[in-house]
Design goal:
The protein has helices at about 25-35, 45-50, 90-100, 120-130, 145-150, 155, 175-180, 215-225, 260-265, 280-285, 305-315, 325-335, 340-345, 350, 355-370, and strands at about 1-5, 35-40, 55-60, 60-65, 70-75, 85-90, 135, 165-170, 190, 205-210, 230-235, 250, 255, 275, 300-305, 370-375, 385, 395. The chain has about 400 residues and is of the alpha+beta class. It has two domains: about 1-240, Alpha-Beta Barrel (TIM Barrel), CATH 3.20.20.140; about 305-395. The strands form four sheets. Strands 1, 2, 3, 4, 5, 6, 7, 10, 11 and 15 form a ten-stranded mixed sheet that branches. A three-stranded antiparallel sheet has the order 13-12-14.
């Protein structure tokens, strides 16, 4: 069977997460996006575990609510400020993990994403001992990605590097960029939303398509490590230029710099604030190849733009969180089932019967790749314009 999975989200127990990120709301929104399975996130938090347990039990590591399957996961921060994703077989493994790190953290039940006073290799050893999957989150992201702090996976995970079977690309990277780095060729790439909000502009904005035999933890694990015929068959995500850390830019005024300029100014903006190195320049410095060299197992990478963003652009709204944008989005989802269908599968002539011409034309332009992107950087998302629109407005992902 073929499934769509978002394997990195956060609950309402995470700082900065929307209060509506509860298990029921997530379970209801996932089918609208076209997702079959979601990783819970934040599963080290005892209060979130209690919510997860309200779902129907499928097996030791799999749960279901409102036809959405869940597997157990968390994001953690190590003492080097690097973020890692961990996937667990069941609640007993979570408890084992918590006991082993309890003396090294002070916020395990205060936040969804705990900080642990251990290095990446130490955490990976614990994960290995309990047979959990572990890998770096948003690997290129400044501040907390492995490559923004270390020179390689081996520098982070040391003797446990062989145990790392996946990396998460993050919103500012894709397979073409990542496969310029040779050490990443052996691992599976994950593309996830890292969503803190159930709104369709955030939740499921990136996802993975897997070939599996069932919607269970063990089948997903097999797909990630690529055994028994299970495997990823598609990564779906934003064009990396839209990510808020793609270009090197000032973290205050967002002025963008090329690599030589930033180095010349010693990574200090003309406004006096810090220039943060972007994903593009990180990869330029670490790349093994001038062009991507994809390993045989690497699936295609498909660009997507959240439907609510397209609607926002087409209708001239200020941002995708307006009631008008959401109403138009919901009209299309009600008729065609989910966002993936609307963006990629439903015939344009059928979409035209349901919504206004401006939205139909914008969806068609997206499918044709007839859009331009103003790159993001320094913590500010990029923005998109449809050049064929007369007097077009530019919308932002913020």
């Amino acid at each position: 069977m073929i499934i769509n999975a978002d394997l990195h989200i956060h609950s309402h127990f995470s700082k900065s997460a929307n209060e509506d990120m509860n298990i029921k709301r997530i379970s209801l929104e996932a089918p609208k996006k076209g997702l079959n399975l979601v990783a819970t996130g934040d599963c080290l938090n005892s209060r979130w575990i209690q919510e997860i347990k309200t779902c129907n039990y499928i097996d030791e590591g799999t749960f279901e609510l409102n036809h959405t399957r869940f597997i157990l996961s968390t994001e953690i921060e190590d003492k080097d400020h690097i973020h890692h994703l961990v996937y667990f077989h069941d609640f007993s493994k979570i408890e084992e993990f918590k006991e082993k790190i309890r003396s090294k953290t002070c916020n395990i039940d205060k936040d969804g994403k705990p900080k642990i006073d251990m290095h990446g290799d130490e955490i990976a050893l614990i994960a290995k001992d309990i047979d959990a999957l572990i890998g770096p989150a948003h690997i290129f992201t400044p501040w907390t990605g492995v490559y923004s702090i270390k020179n390689s996976l081996a520098e982070c995970y040391k003797d446990l590097t062989y145990y790392i079977r996946f990396v998460e690309l993050g919103l500012s990277a894709n397979s073409d960029l990542a496969d310029r780095i040779q050490e990443l060729h052996r691992v599976t790439f994950l593309s996830n939303s890292d969503s803190h909000n159930p709104h369709p502009v955030r939740f499921g904005r990136e996802f993975n398509r897997f070939k599996v035999n069932d919607l269970t933890f063990n089948e997903i694990k097999k797909a990630i490590i690529r055994i028994d015929g299970n495997k990823p068959i598609l990564n779906v995500g934003l064009p990396p230029e839209e990510g808020k850390y793609f270009e090197s830019a000032c973290v205050f005024c967002y002025k963008q710099y090329d690599l030589n300029e930033a180095k010349f100014f010693n990574w200090k903006c003309s406004c006096g604030n810090k220039i943060k190195k972007g994903v593009k320049h990180q990869i330029e410095e670490k790349a093994s190849f001038l062009e991507p060299q994809h390993p045989y197992h690497r699936p295609p990478y498909l660009y997507t733009i959240p439907l609510s963003e397209i609607i926002t652009k087409a209708t001239g709204q200020r941002n995708p969180f307006t009631d008008i944008s959401y109403k138009r989005w919901n009209e299309l989802i009600t008729v065609f089932g989910n966002e993936i269908n609307v963006l990629f599968d439903v015939e344009i002539k059928d979409i035209a019967k349901v919504t206004v011409p401006a939205i139909t034309e914008a969806i068609q332009a997206f499918r044709l790749g007839d859009y331009i992107i103003k790159s993001g950087g320094g913590g500010k998302y990029g923005c998109i314009d449809f050049p064929k629109e007369k007097d077009a407005l530019i919308f932002s992902l913020e």
